[in-house]
Design brief:
alpha/beta, Rossmann fold, 12 helices, 53% helix
Length: 299
């Protein structure tokens, strides 16, 4: 079975190949730097991050008299790692019991699947987990969580229909009564443009605070890496509504270009708690900047 590093490297292969194609050129000149700029923009790095990377890169070329594509790649790796390092802040679920994690995102981002993988992550740490099926609008999401709970011996609190806030309130009460360590609270997928639905998710957050005055202890937003610059708009909209404290970036193994993390770092630097590269139960892992850059730009 492939290691996590190998799966991450495979997921980012398209962007890596396009950058390496450029850096096989014989010399560093204006044309190469312009082509690199276009490649970074195409990789969803966004204008701000791309401009910063290119400006810093040109400064290093001048200061250190870089001449070979290999030297340029090394400089780009160092700059990208510096840019992404502040996003690397692992989630610490100790200190509160139950530790209540509210999870939000648009439909299709991989939210419900990610909840199952997060439950597995906490179980591997020896923590007991309870899932709250707060996406009462989608029967499939409820059934998906229930099935996952059955397979992995995780308690799922759900209702056939009704108020998602009430489901999550009941789940927190149950977790307290049973002495559970972590509550993962699913919420209905919604678009940031649906203002009435964004208000509904804000209500869920307020109800969590009633059930657990110190909570939610983490508010995770699940982002599909393939949506590029739309990710920035989603982070800003959800942050305004519910106060996002961390990100889960999924589907980096699809057509994703990987640069969206650079855009996040420059435009809305929320901690990236986890990244995902596949459908497997272990294909969601804590984000590590050095590991990510090596997968993207390593030889």
């Amino acid at each position: 079975m492939a290691t996590w590093a190998q799966r991450l490297r495979a997921g980012l292969s398209k962007t890596r190949d396009s950058i390496f194609g450029l850096l096989r050129a014989g010399k560093i000149d204006d044309e190469l730097l312009e082509d690199l700029e276009s490649t970074l923009l195409t990789a969803d790095c966004g204008i701000e991050a791309t401009t910063w990377l290119l400006d810093e890169l040109k400064a290093r070329v001048r200061q250190h008299r870089l001449e070979t594509p290999g030297e340029l790649r090394q400089a780009l790796s160092e700059l990208l790692e510096n840019l992404l390092a502040p996003l690397e802040r692992p989630l610490d679920a100790s200190g509160r019991k139950p530790f209540v994690i509210m999870i939000a995102g648009v439909n299709g981002a991989g939210k419900t699947t990610s909840i199952g993988k997060l439950a597995r992550h906490f179980q591997a740490q020896g923590r007991s987990v309870l899932l709250a099926a707060g996406d009462t609008f989608r029967a499939a999401a409820r059934e998906q969580l229930a099935e996952w709970g059955r397979r992995n011996d995780v308690t799922v609190i759900a209702q056939e229909s009704g108020d998602p806030a009430a489901v999550i309130f009941d789940a927190i009460a149950a977790a307290k009564a049973r002495g559970m360590d972590v509550v993962l609270a699913d919420t209905a997928g919604r678009l940031p443009t649906q203002l009435h639905l964004m208000e509904e998710i804000a209500k869920v957050r307020r109800v969590i605070q009633k059930a657990e005055p110190s909570g939610p202890h983490e508010v995770l937003l699940v982002l599909d890496a393939n949506i590029g610059q739309n990710a920035i708009a989603q982070v800003k909209a959800f942050d305004k509504a519910i106060g996002v404290t961390g990100l889960v970036v999924t589907k980096l193994d699809g057509t994703a270009k990987g640069g969206v993390l650079a855009a996040i770092a420059r435009q809305c630097p929320k901690p990236v708690r986890f990244i995902g590269v596949g459908e497997g139960i272990d294909d969601l892992q804590p984000f590590r900047a050095k590991e990510f850059v090596e997968a993207l730009l390593g030889p």
